Amino acid sequence: MNTYKLLTPGPLTTTDTVKQEMLFDHCTWDDDYKKITQEIRSKLLKLAHVSEDEYTAVLMQGSGTFGVESVITSSVGPEDKLLICANGAYGERMEDIARHAGITYKIYHQAYDKVPSADRVAEILDADPDITHVSMVHSETTSGILNDIESVAKVVKSKGRVMIVDAMSSFGGVDIPVADWGVDFIISSANKCIQGVPGFSFVIAKLDELEKCKGKARSLSLDLYDQWKTMKIDGKWRFTSPTHVVLAFAQALRELEQEGGIEARNRRYTENNKLLIKELKELGIKPYIDETHQGPIITTFYYPEDAHFSFNEMYEYIKERGYAIYPGKVTEADTFRIGNIGEIYQEDILKVAGLIKEFLQGKSGR
Ligand SMILES: Cc1ncc(COP(=O)(O)O)c(C=O)c1O
User: Fold this and answer.
1) Is the CB of residue 243 below 6 angstroms from any atom belonging to ligand 1?
2) Are 235 and 41 within 8 A, CB to CB?
3) Does the pTM of the predicted model rise above 0.90?
4) To bridge 296 with a disulfide, which of 77, 155, 269, 281 should be the other Cys (CB 3.0-4.6 Å)?
């Protein structure tokens, strides 16, 4: 099979042992299967540092966006108003979700290379008492910036509002003490830092806020409250569950534990990321986000200055030699992105940096 490793922010390269779990066609309603779902839910709470008395985990069919849409459209009621803090495409997607559902919202736009400011959120909340909920992305995969959800959540809680965090590309790879930071709903998906395969998202929700979602959902299949009510009984999913993906995810969680938990995984990702930035800087390729705010998941790089450069040509060159990278997503500059999560190690980073060097030297005829 002609394969390559993914240097993308998910789906990402998974282990063979995770993929092997998908060779079994599991029955959805038998007790063994339901038990697996319950174990996953309980492990997710541990990773989030929350107790079962205060929080619960709900798994939702579909990709990450389905999870975000489920939370927003199930928790922000007809009398409520949502403040969206956006510094990238995934913050802006929350606006799209709100618009589609007819939810009343305000958006606080921040530049893509800056983090939303907790002081500004405080001012907006003081000026607009109608705002009941605040949402924000943690790792904005558009650029790779890591937003300061701790400071923003502190303000949101001190002003008595509900905090929603999209931690799609950070949960499992960056430690998030969900209860201590005052997050009410946090969303991620199977194919990111836990290193499973795509097919479902998950929500860790504060129980008292989840109870308030009853009857508010704008759609049947994305009703977070109803999904929870069914799943909490014995682990049965409300509609057909992605059985193969669930088995793979259970294995991915075991492998996260074997690696040494979030702390060890974060260390590996951070080291990958630092090495990548160092190696590319040596080739004259600069990162778009400054060092203080650069997250450990994915990096946006400016195109090299003097090279006559086609991203597609470089992409093909690298792909043929075993790695897939990503085009840029920021709007105001020519950039490309390299993710360093998944089954990716320092040797992969060195290889890809070597390939970029080779490609650029070939271009300049050096
Ligand atoms: C921060 C963030 N939010 C939301 C999404 C959307 O997830 P999906 O493409 O799985 O729907 C992504 C995808 O990469 C993401 O990185």
Assistant:
1) no
2) yes
3) yes
4) 269
- Find, among 95, 169, 90, 155, the residue nearest to 125 by Cα: 155
195 lines ligand 1 (CB under 6 A): no
Q: Write out 68-87 in H/E/C secondary structure.
A: HHHHHHHHCCCCCCEEEEEC
Burial of 145 (0-12, 13-18, 19+ CB in 10 A): buried
Query: CA–CA separation, 82 vs 75, rounded Å?
Result: 10
Cα 288 to Cα 58: distance, rounded to the nearest angstrom = 35
Q: Say how many Å lie between the CA of residue 93 and the centre of ligand 1.
A: 9
Whole-number Å distance, alpha carbon 87 to ligand 1 midpoint, is 14
Closest ligand 1 atom number to CA of residue 90: 3
User: Distance from the CA of 127 to the center of ligand 1, in angstroms?
Assistant: 31
Report whether the peptide linkage leading into residue 11 is cis, meaning its omega lies within 30 degrees of zero.
yes
